[in-house]
């Protein structure tokens, strides 16, 4: 662990004292983090699920076993296409890649008084190898989320809020794996920060993926 990472961890984990004024406790001071600092902390604590929301680190509950199995299953289904994906300058990865939320979307959230993440980390994706160095759009051809059904807010995050983030990044295809009825919600044709098309697909129908038409992945294979 580097010195910078140790310092970031100390800042993140240190207990902030609550000042008192004339004997009355005051609200605790907040330590806001940059995306670079957060990346160091997330790297140092790989087993903890964290999000950076408006500069604050928020701990997310761990996924359940079904969620983990579905995520591993998607990575397994993508693995045979490694060479074809590589020819496009891309790689297939699990939940180890972060995408920064576009500035224009965060600005609209600020105007609306809405809190949102500074970045997102999908359960699986097919990013371009150079997207971090080039800030290219789209940074990936495909992003995939597995719905967490522990709370309505978790479902809304994947089906309502995240589509706008990925569409703003111009990612051509976004899949949401929905265990509730063994379906996959497919979002395509990003335009002006929204996906123009959304379809719920079940059974043995091949899932569309713009630019990755060679992927022969179906809901049946995902849930088998």
Whole-number tally of structural domains: 2
Determine Rg (CA atoms, Å). Answer: 19 Å
Q: Helical region count?
A: 8
Terminal Cα span: 40 Å
Number of strands: 11
In percent, how much strand structure appears in the residues? 15-25%
What would your notes on this structure say?
- There is one protein chain.
- With 224 residues, the protein is α+β, with helices and mostly antiparallel strands.
- The protein folds into two domains: 3-59, no CATH class; 65-222, tt1808, chain A.
- It has helices spanning 3-13, 35-44, 65-78, 82-87, 103-112, 131-134, 152-168, 219-222; strands at 20-21, 24-25, 50-53, 56-59, 99-100, 119-120, 124-127, 140-146, 173-178, 183-191, 194-201.
- A five-stranded mixed sheet has the order 7-8-9-10-11.
Compile the SSE list and pairings.
Blueprint: H1 3-13, E1 20-21, E2 24-25, H2 35-44, E3 50-53, E4 56-59, H3 65-78, H4 82-87, E5 99-100, H5 103-112, E6 119-120, E7 124-127, H6 131-134, E8 140-146, H7 152-168, E9 173-178, E10 183-191, E11 194-201, H8 219-222
Parallel strand pairs: 8-9
Antiparallel strand pairs: 1-2, 3-4, 5-6, 7-8, 9-10, 10-11
Helix pairs in contact: 1-2
């Amino acid at each position: 662990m580097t010195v910078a990472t140790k310092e970031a961890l100390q800042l993140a984990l240190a207990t902030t004292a609550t000042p008192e004024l004339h004997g009355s406790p005051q609200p605790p001071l907040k330590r806001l983090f940059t995306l670079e600092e957060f990346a160091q902390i997330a790297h140092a604590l790989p087993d903890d699920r964290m999000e950076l929301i408006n500069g604050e680190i928020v701990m997310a509950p761990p996924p359940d076993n079904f969620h983990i199995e579905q995520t591993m299953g998607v990575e397994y289904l993508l693995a045979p296409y490694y060479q074809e994906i590589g020819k496009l300058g891309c790689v297939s990865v699990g939940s180890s890649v972060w995408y920064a939320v576009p500035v224009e979307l965060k600005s609209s959230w600020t105007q609306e008084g809405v809190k949102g993440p500074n970045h997102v980390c999908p359960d699986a994706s097919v990013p371009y190898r150079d997207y971090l160095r080039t800030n290219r759009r789209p940074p990936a051809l495909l992003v995939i989320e597995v719905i967490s059904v522990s709370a309505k807010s978790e479902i809304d995050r994947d089906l309502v809020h995240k589509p706008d983030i990925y569409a703003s990044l111009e990612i051509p295809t976004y899949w949401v794996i929905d265990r509730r009825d063994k379906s996959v919600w497919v979002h395509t044709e990003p335009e002006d920060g929204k996906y123009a098309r959304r379809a719920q697909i079940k059974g043995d129908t091949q899932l569309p993926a713009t630019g990755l038409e060679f992927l022969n992945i179906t809901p049946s294979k995902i849930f088998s």
